Model the fold of this input.
Amino acid sequence: MGCGSSKELRDNTDQPRISAPQGGLELIPVPRRDERGIPITHQHYDLDRVHLRRALHYAAEYLHDQGANVEIITVGGAVNTILLQTRSTTHDVDFFVSQDRSPQMRLLEQASRVAEAKASLPLGGNWLNNATTLYIPSRIRQELAQEAVEQNDVVFQAPGLTVLAAPWLYALCTKIDRLGDRQKRRRYDQADAVAYLRRYTSRHRRQPVVYQNLTKAAAHYRIALTVEICQEINREYEAQFGQPGIRF
Done:
């Protein structure tokens, strides 16, 4: 979706209605409904590393011009496409911040629209979104944000905007969770999980993570793991790197 038409609207019935925020959260993009009250859905596009970074640059420029310096934590495809380069494309930048509500959230929404208007290829109205916030309890989100700062794996950085990778152990747990759902798992999920596990073990002298510690962390994040999926990931990890990534 673009920035909208320049045609003047004659009355309010033609204007999209903005849904009220739920649970005190500020969502980006702001949920909107059409004149019939139906939620407006956004088209997704395959975004490669070059165009994703360019879009983030446009957003950063806007934020910098507004005197803002925003830090967000990203999970999923943007990490793999930009930082790890284990995927060629992704649909969006999924992110969260530590606070439920922040004065900078409105600026982020505006920055995402500016980037969408400037981009040479369509980004989709959902290219920068924090829908993942809905699945992370506020207290856990604050912990993860602090851990991401300490981890300091930078996905993107320019004056006005810093994008950090979520903690690798959390990212691994979320992938294991999705791999356990045969209807939701995607062809790249196993490779993503192995890549996250490798980044985690690389920060711990290549030592495998103990399975009991992994399940304890997942329980803290309110994520359910199965030993079968963990074994599946470990087999693939061992095939690639010649040593186990998880110790059972």
